[in-house]
Design goal:
This protein is α/β, with parallel strands linked by helices. The chain has 2 domains: 4-117 and 370-383, Enolase-like, N-terminal domain (Enolase-like, domain 1, 2-Layer Sandwich); 122-357, TIM Barrel (Alpha-Beta Barrel). The chain has helices spanning 79-86, 95-116, 120-124, 147-160, 174-188, 204-214, 231-238, 253-261, 273-290, 303-314, 370-376, and strands at 12-29, 34-47, 52-56, 131-137, 165-169, 193-197, 222-223, 245-247, 268-269, 294-295, 329-333, 356-357, 377-383. β9 (268-269), α9 (273-290) and β10 (294-295) form a beta-alpha-beta unit. The protein is globular, with a radius of gyration of 20 Å. The two termini are 31 Å apart. The model has no long low-confidence stretch (mean pLDDT 92).
Length: 384
């Protein structure tokens, strides 16, 4: 435990919110829309000690300028106090605030680790693993003449790259979903894990019907078949089919704990650190473990967020102590993104063992490439 006299005297002098945009070479689709460009918000926290922390916080930003005194002049070691004072109370209307707060919270943990010369995962508690198994997020809709054939071919490429688990997009209607899942499962074979994500495409009744038809395909989980806030819908689906249910990327930690964890509403919780921050992530880690619920972090952002997610995943305890306990995984986005890898000097990639090493340097263990941040930056907000 740190004593007050051992804490380095550091003060926050400035917060910079970098809003990034990158145009895609080829659009890709999902159940709600087509994606033509990627966005991210990097939160940079500057101190009077020459240390700078970084976080990836989503799409918000402006609200922090309204109350700079809650951050400016304070020590990054007050990270949990700042989290409590700034966190969103819950609900979708607060999501932009929660997202930027998440990026700020990650940046403060990065600073604490740098100041102490320790990786963030060492600060969060026990580090159970030095390498984490990713699941590959890909298989979006593209401008193929034959959707099922296109997805099957892409699936083979990710299997050949060494991924043990792959997630595909669904939510295109019952008949199309069954057709494409059948095609991808046949392309992968039984040995590669397959999960699906419908991005809130259905009502509970339709999802219950589709779920029964998808049972034979041995799916790892079905992510967000209904709206994230349709708690009664999830409750119905929990008992409608055998496919494990997963959800949680859109909600802040308090709401996840209240609605999803305590009631065991889903089998797998998938929070995103952009909304929970590292502080909320640590709390959810033990809440899910105590409630015997699997935790598989959602990840859709820059390599800054991927580094933070790796540190988080390193500290998630196994759900069971048996020899064949389900692996702790996290989401590894491999869709097109012009700036995702460019903004970080380090290569966060899967090794020949199918695992991604957790950065072991101080803080997040990464170095942000400012030239890349400036190249893709569309807006800058400075709070001082």
């Amino acid at each position: 435990m740190l004593h007050s006299e051992s804490i380095p005297r550091i003060r926050i002098t400035e917060v910079r919110v970098h809003q990034l945009t990158g145009r895609l070479k080829e659009r890709f689709g999902w159940s709600q829309n087509w994606t033509h460009e990627r966005h991210a918000t990097l939160v940079e926290v500057v101190t009077d000690a020459g240390l700078t922390g970084w976080g990836d916080g989503g799409y918000g930003g402006d609200w922090l300028a309204e109350n700079p005194e809650l951050v400016i002049g304070r020590s990054p070691f007050e990270v949990e106090a700042i989290h409590e004072e700034l966190r969103a109370p819950g609900g979708f209307q607060q999501r932009p605030r929660a997202q930027t707060h998440g990026g700020l919270d990650i940046a403060l943990w990065d600073l604490v680790g740098q100041a102490l010369g320790l990786p963030v995962s060492a600060l969060l508690g026990r580090r159970y693993r030095d390498r984490v198994q990713p699941y590959c997020t890909a298989l979006y809709r593209k401008d193929w003449t034959d959707l099922a054939a296109g997805l099957a071919e892409e699936a083979k490429s990710w299997k050949a790259a060494g991924f043990r688990a792959i997630k595909m997009k669904t939510g295109y209607g019952p008949e199309v979903d069954v057709e494409i899942v059948f095609a991808v499962r046949n392309a992968l074979g039984a040995e590669t894990g397959l999960a699906i994500d419908s991005n809130c495409a259905y009502d509970a009744g339709t999802a219950a019907m589709i779920g029964k038809r998808l049972e034979p395909f041995d799916l790892l989980w079905w992510e967000e078949p209904v709206l994230a806030s349709d708690y009664e819908g999830y409750r119905r689906l929990r008992n409608s089919f055998s496919i494990p249910l997963a959800a949680g990327e859109y909600l802040p930690a308090d709401l996840l704990a209240e609605q999803f964890v305590q009631s065991r509403l889903v089998d797998i919780l998938q929070p995103d650190i952009e909304t929970t921050g590292m502080t909320g992530a640590r709390r959810l880690t033990w809440l899910t473990w105590l409630n015997h619920m699997r935790l598989i972090p959602h990840n859709w952002g820059s390599a800054v967020r991927t580094a933070a997610e790796l540190h988080w995943a390193a500290t998630i305890p196994p759900i069971a102590e048996g020899l064949y306990s389900p692996p702790v995984m996290f989401e590894f986005d491999l869709t097109e993104n012009p700036f995702r890898e460019a903004v970080v000097r380090e290569k966060l990639e899967m090794g020949p063992d199918g695992l991604i090493p957790v950065p072991d340097g101080p803080g997040l263990g990464i170095h942000v490439v400012r030239e890349a941040v400036e190249e893709f930056r569309k807006n800058l907000i400075v709070i001082c």
